[in-house]
Amino acid sequence: MTGKELLERMLVLGGRTDWQDSQQASAAISAANQAIGEVNVLFPLTKTVRLLHYPLRPVVYHKGIVVHRGGEDMEFNASGIKSLAFAVSGTGKARLCVNNVEMTNIDEKNGLIREDGEPLFYDDGWSDLNDFFIYRWTGAKRADVKLVFSGEYSYMIKDLSFYDDVAGDMPEDVAPFGAWTEYDLDGVKYANGRFASLAASPVMIDGDEPRELREYKVEGSLIYLPSNVCGEVEVKYRARPTPLTLDNRENELDIDAELHALIPLKAAYYVYCLDDPEAAERCLAEYNRQMPLVVSRLRKVKTPRKLKNVWGGF
């Protein structure tokens, strides 16, 4: 069912041929979106993303927290480096030298970039007192690098990681190494703003038989997979339906097709409940009759099969 067909079906259920004005048309779309959201909850739309989980391992790694003492310079050197990342908490400065040339032109492609997008300049430093913030740098090719931390105050540096490669195409793909590797399932590479919740445990699909990954963590749209397990991982998530608009009404509704018949009934109830209560109650009664039958049928035919387990983590 397309959005256009849904709106037409709503008209038929109310004994009408068109919406009288733009205000009624807008109300119909709002009612349709409310119904789509509620019906989707009955048996949520699920989608699958594939994570290429091959965590990049650092060639030089300072695990855990290193404390910078106020008034002192703390220097780290590494050779053959293409990217680096670390987290800091406190007030301080840093400067980066690549092949003995100090980096002063900092930008997203070639510089230290903070997690929230603010560049780290040597002159300004940072002043994050309550949390750890991630900084990262990616170079065009491997180089000898020197990273010098300074500042008047003491602060903490966490999981300083030097890599001889890059983990992906995006700046945020470079991250401090740790026991867990983070993926944002709601990011543009994956759900693109439509992630609602995780629908099942991640599944390793390398090898002859899919295996359930039992060690993982979820915080909002972020999923953390153990860095000591490598392979392709499928993640099934519950997706928020795309809102219906005048511009996309020719598109198919991205909600389970078995639920399509219920949406016009619930939407018509909302759009007619004030102007035509009798028609609205008829639609609601038919919705309440069909809904448990549809949900029961879906639960019978879409029960996931059990998989073997894969344990990971530290």
Structure characteristics:
single chain; 314 residues; alpha+beta; six-stranded mixed β-sheet; six-stranded antiparallel β-sheet; 4 helices
Question: What would you say this structure looks like, in words?
Answer:
This protein is α+β, with helices and mostly antiparallel strands. 22% of the residues lie in helices and 36% in strands. It has four helices and 15 strands. The strands form three sheets. Strands 1, 9, 10, 11, 14 and 15 form a six-stranded mixed β-sheet that branches. Helix 2 packs across helix 3 and helix 3 packs antiparallel against helix 4. The longest helix has 25 residues. The radius of gyration is 27 Å and the shape is elongated. The model has no long low-confidence stretch (mean pLDDT 85).
The proportion of residues in beta strands is 35-45%
Structural class based on helices, strands and sheet pairing: alpha+beta
- From the alpha carbons, calculate the radius of gyration and give it in angstroms: 27 Å
Main beta sheet strand tally, sense and closure: 6 strands, mixed
How many individual helices? 4
What's the overall average pLDDT, rounded? 85
Order of helices and strands: HHEEEEEEEEEEEEEEHHE
First and last CA, distance: 48 Å
Give the % helix: 10-25%
Based on Cα principal axes, name the global outline: elongated
- In total, the number of strands is 15
- Spans of at least 5 consecutive residues with low confidence: none
Outline of this structure?
By secondary structure, the chain is of the alpha+beta class. The protein is built from four helices and 15 strands. A hairpin with a 2-residue loop joins strand 3 and strand 4.
